[in-house]
């Protein structure tokens, strides 16, 4: 799949922008703060319905405007699809597919993209929440219906936490909380489906991560993934040491239901004391290991950077292998400035076969010439014409 045409209106620092994109590599060049990342962020938004830099859509709308529009023409196997989303300050966002009204959640079914940015270093060094978000966004791209499952789980979790907090404030004993059992059952049902799906995803990603890490780092180091599960006693959000009893690659639905049920019963007193649900996919972690050691805390800066990049390249490889819409659009945001010349060449080789690669750089010479065949120059929220660059 490729994005052949992109239009923006009042998105970030763009009053309006129109850019034609080519198959293969496309390089966006401009000084820092001119809007390079904003362009590629817009395409990634169509695929994930979220920004990799901010938690709400409000920051994506140009200052002083009520709405922003992202419109893109996608091409795959001779078929074209026009997708559009309107981000609103007031009211719900709106979407269109081929000019017909659609729901925003329908867009990721059409758009496949994988973005790597400097913020992704937090996938290795940051908190578990970032790694959970990484897995869930990829899950939704592979299986869009899981978006509803994840949303339902979050809703049930909020309701259950609210009940636990009310019970704590009123000092209600657990024997008097019959309503809690209803929420327990729903939490376990939805949560077990998420845990099983994440486990399958981790297993599918593992070989791709190992291959990508070796391709980037240029030496054989064992990069591995596993799931650290709170229903088996893990406490990653509280900084507890990794317990091997809680580490799994995959877990099936029936085993997850049994373990989740036992965890709910085991944690009942503590949950009532704290007013918080202490086990479930919202408390799990993706465990990253390099040569058998947890990458968080043991990997060097260069190793952490390579591991984060390997996670994104592995995601792209998995989408390529399983998606009926062809390759995902691979986006490399300000990546090459962080790499030495040797690793730049390795990365260029690793992405050379993708249908479309979008790259941003402040310094054109940082990017290998093979990836600069089609260059778009950005200045102050404008696409600069060739005449203006001469």
Automatic annotation (TrEMBL):
<protein>
    <recommendedName>
        <fullName>DNA replication and repair protein RecF</fullName>
    </recommendedName>
</protein>
<keyword id="KW-0235">DNA replication</keyword>
<dbReference type="GO" id="GO:0006260">
    <property type="term" value="P:DNA replication"/>
</dbReference>
<keyword id="KW-0742">SOS response</keyword>
<keyword id="KW-0238">DNA-binding</keyword>
<keyword id="KW-0067">ATP-binding</keyword>
<keyword id="KW-0234">DNA repair</keyword>
<dbReference type="InterPro" id="IPR027417">
    <property type="entry name" value="P-loop_NTPase"/>
</dbReference>
<comment type="function">
    <text>The RecF protein is involved in DNA metabolism; it is required for DNA replication and normal SOS inducibility. RecF binds preferentially to single-stranded, linear DNA. It also seems to bind ATP.</text>
</comment>
<feature type="binding site">
    <location>
        <begin position="30"/>
        <end position="37"/>
    </location>
    <ligand>
        <name>ATP</name>
    </ligand>
</feature>
<dbReference type="Pfam" id="PF02463">
    <property type="entry name" value="SMC_N"/>
</dbReference>
<keyword id="KW-0227">DNA damage</keyword>
<dbReference type="GO" id="GO:0003697">
    <property type="term" value="F:single-stranded DNA binding"/>
</dbReference>
<dbReference type="InterPro" id="IPR018078">
    <property type="entry name" value="DNA-binding_RecF_CS"/>
</dbReference>
<feature type="domain" description="RecF/RecN/SMC N-terminal">
    <location>
        <begin position="3"/>
        <end position="364"/>
    </location>
</feature>
<dbReference type="InterPro" id="IPR042174">
    <property type="entry name" value="RecF_2"/>
</dbReference>
<comment type="similarity">
    <text>Belongs to the RecF family.</text>
</comment>
<dbReference type="GO" id="GO:0005737">
    <property type="term" value="C:cytoplasm"/>
</dbReference>
<dbReference type="GO" id="GO:0006302">
    <property type="term" value="P:double-strand break repair"/>
</dbReference>
<keyword id="KW-0963">Cytoplasm</keyword>
<dbReference type="InterPro" id="IPR001238">
    <property type="entry name" value="DNA-binding_RecF"/>
</dbReference>
<dbReference type="InterPro" id="IPR003395">
    <property type="entry name" value="RecF/RecN/SMC_N"/>
</dbReference>
<dbReference type="GO" id="GO:0005524">
    <property type="term" value="F:ATP binding"/>
</dbReference>
<keyword id="KW-0547">Nucleotide-binding</keyword>
<dbReference type="GO" id="GO:0009432">
    <property type="term" value="P:SOS response"/>
</dbReference>
<dbReference type="GO" id="GO:0000731">
    <property type="term" value="P:DNA synthesis involved in DNA repair"/>
</dbReference>
């Amino acid at each position: 799949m490729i994005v052949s045409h992109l239009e923006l209106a009042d998105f970030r620092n763009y009053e309006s922008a129109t850019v034609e994109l080519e198959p293969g590599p496309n390089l966006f060049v401009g000084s820092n703060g001119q809007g390079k990342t904003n362009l590629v962020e817009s395409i990634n938004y169509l695929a994930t319905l979220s920004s990799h830099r901010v938690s709400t859509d409000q920051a994506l709308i140009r200052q002083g405007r009520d709405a922003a529009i992202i419109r893109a023409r996608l091409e795959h196997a001779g078929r074209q699809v026009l997708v559009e989303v309107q981000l609103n300050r007031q009211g719900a966002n709106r979407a269109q597919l081929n000019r017909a009204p659609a729901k925003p959640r329908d867009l990721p079914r059409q758009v496949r993209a994988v973005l790597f940015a400097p913020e992704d270093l937090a996938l290795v060094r940051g908190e578990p929440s970032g790694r959970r978000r990484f897995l869930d966004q990829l899950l939704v791209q592979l299986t869009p219906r899981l978006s509803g499952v994840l949303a339902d789980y979050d809703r049930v979790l909020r309701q259950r936490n609210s009940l636990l907090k009310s019970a704590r404030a009123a000092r209600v004993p657990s024997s008097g909380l019959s309503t809690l059992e209803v929420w327990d059952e729903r939490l376990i049902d939805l949560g077990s489906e998420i845990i099983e799906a994440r486990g399958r995803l981790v297993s599918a990603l593992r070989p791709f991560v190992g291959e990508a890490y070796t391709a980037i780092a240029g030496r054989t180091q064992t990069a591995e993934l596993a799931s650290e599960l709170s229903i088996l006693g893990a406490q990653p959000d509280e900084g507890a040491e990794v317990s091997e009893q809680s580490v799994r690659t995959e877990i099936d639905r029936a085993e997850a239901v049994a373990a989740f049920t036992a965890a709910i019963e085991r944690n009942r007193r503590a949950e009532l004391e704290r007013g918080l649900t202490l086990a479930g996919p919202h408390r799990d972690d993706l465990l990253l290991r390099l040569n058998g050691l947890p990458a968080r805390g043991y990997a060097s800066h260069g190793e952490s950077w390579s591991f984060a990049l390997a996670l994104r390249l592995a995601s792209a490889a998995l989408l390529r292998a399983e998606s009926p819409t062809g390759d995902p659009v691979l986006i490399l945001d300000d990546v090459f400035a962080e790499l030495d010349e040797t690793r730049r060449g390795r990365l260029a080789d690793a992405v050379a076969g993708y249908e479309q690669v979008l790259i941003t750089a402040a310094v054109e010479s940082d990017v290998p010439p093979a990836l600069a065949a089609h260059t778009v120059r950005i200045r102050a929220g404008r696409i600069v014409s060739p005449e203006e660059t001469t």
